[in-house]
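Most newcomers find our protein records easier to grasp once they have seen one. Each record describes a single protein and holds just a pair of labelled lines. A learned vocabulary of local backbone shapes supplies the integers on the structure line. Nothing more is needed to start thinking about how sequence determines fold. The record below serves as our worked example for the rest of this section.
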Amino acid sequence: MAVKPLEDRILIQPLERETKTASGIFLPESAAEKPMQGKVIATGPGKLLDSGERATMSVKKGDTVVFGKYSGTEIEIKGKSHLIVRESELLGLIQN
């Protein structure tokens, strides 16, 4: 199954939850925080402007982004959790 986002939406695969703290303590599943970073899997064509043109997306496939804890809509694709968020819900782009 392939999902192609529409308009200014972005398909993100969240990074794995941390299972161990910096000091080496293992966290149970219930205590692990929801990830707030992810990899862009696909982007829509951009928001349609009043002029009839499409706005350029500020992220592309393969980028790592930061999003709000409760942003987007969760979906499952091939047994893996993904998020679909609007471009405006992104908080930042992680540059390596």
Notes: The mean pLDDT is 85. The first strand starts at residue 9 and ends at 14. The chain has one domain: 1-14+36-96.
